[in-house]
Amino acid sequence: MTRQIEPDSPETKRTTSSGDKRKKVRPGRIRERNRERILMAAEKEFSQNGFGATTVQKIADRAGLPKSNVLYYFSNKKRIYYALMDDIMGRWNEMFSKIQPEDDPATTLTSFIHAKVELSRTHPLASRLFALEIIQGAPVLKDHLSTTMREWVQARAGVIQQWIDAGRMAPVDPVQLILLIWSSTQHYADFQVQILAIEDKSEYTESDFQHAADFLTSVILRGCGLAP
Amino acid sequence: MTRQIEPDSPETKRTTSSGDKRKKVRPGRIRERNRERILMAAEKEFSQNGFGATTVQKIADRAGLPKSNVLYYFSNKKRIYYALMDDIMGRWNEMFSKIQPEDDPATTLTSFIHAKVELSRTHPLASRLFALEIIQGAPVLKDHLSTTMREWVQARAGVIQQWIDAGRMAPVDPVQLILLIWSSTQHYADFQVQILAIEDKSEYTESDFQHAADFLTSVILRGCGLAP
DNA sequence: AAAAAACTGGACTATTTGGTCAAGAAATTG
DNA sequence: CAATTTCTTGACCAAATAGTCCAGTTTTTT
Lengths: 228, 228
Fold this sequence. Notes:
The structure is a homodimer. By secondary structure, the first copy, chain A, is an all-alpha fold. Helices cover about 70% and strands about 0% of the residues of chain A. Chain A has 10 helices and no strands. In chain A, helix 5 runs antiparallel to helix 10. At the A-B interface, helix 1, helix 6, helix 7, helix 8 and helix 9 of A face helix 1, helix 6, helix 7, helix 8 and helix 9 of B.
């Protein structure tokens, strides 16, 4: 995984799997366990309050560690945030890997929609954190958006355009289509509270997501001339 | 306009048009001018940083007033926030007023989509502020969501269902359809940075919105069996 | 024009915040 | 087991913050 984020520089080494031979540090397995705890706590706090309103103390409390200890692993609040953003973008990049002109449009779009809904289901906090970052002007991710993510979208849009040119689907703006799928799926994580309130439920079930994915698939596919 | 929000109580009277005869206060036109300034500044700050990370000082600076003066008009930070939420929900409620079973589905959905995109264009800050509030669990608006907005959605969903029953459009889940329109249009305001980055632009033009609205209309209408 | 009310804004405060430091406890290594 | 390195934690601090207070100024009312 490349270090895409991280405007600051040192520290924040992932002690994970990789070859990663640095001079002295072959340190405790404790390191990893604690970093993980901290990141999980931070994801919760940041996604609930945003960067500015989250206090290191609260992260520490949630992680069950003293504040100084948190700041031992991540030298400051921003570093925690960067590490999270890095994780999120990494996970996102791994997904929906390839898409080929030869592929079947209907099948590909269907699995894209389902994968994205699934991501909203399994990682709602990350999704909300991402949304907060973007809404607030993407101070950290701006670069990433206009490089990596832009290319990601353009590549897929190119394939969709080929499908259209080959008459395999209706002529819709490919970039807009990707945005539509992105937004409508993302919504299920970000606006969970609103949806639950409107549908008068207190919790999503797995079948709610299934239902949502099926609905989106049917409307969008039909909308693209890829009939029922 | 009803005071729907405002968990706190006194103060925060709108000195606007209404009959509103209170004993002594028939105060300066200054009051209104300053309140307006403060609210505009607050909308900007809150939508950029969220409630917790916004400081009264920054609101004051942006409004060109000393902090104490801001706190003279709104006795504390929450009150400013409540007032904004109230405005937003009011504006939202006024829109898309009526929808009748006799109406034409295609026409109605089209104008709904266009109106919502237009709202994203003309009030992006309010839209983002709303999104922030929802993502963070709607601490202030939760009540409103499960009452007013819920009824709003249910009423429209009912009409859509009647259209479906009458065979005037494809059988899609009406609530999901409303959510789809909501999310895909809202997106243009909330994720502006992302969209601009991906499309490699630095600013939206009015025709971008037009294009977006047309795209959404065509895909969603077709998706509902309301062919071009 | 005098009285009353609305408004302005500087000074102040109690609390909270991110971050440092240093001293010691645990673990790892030679 | 001694030396070295990693880890833990309470004490501390400077800066920032929401909100108060109040003395004075301007505007409105009578």
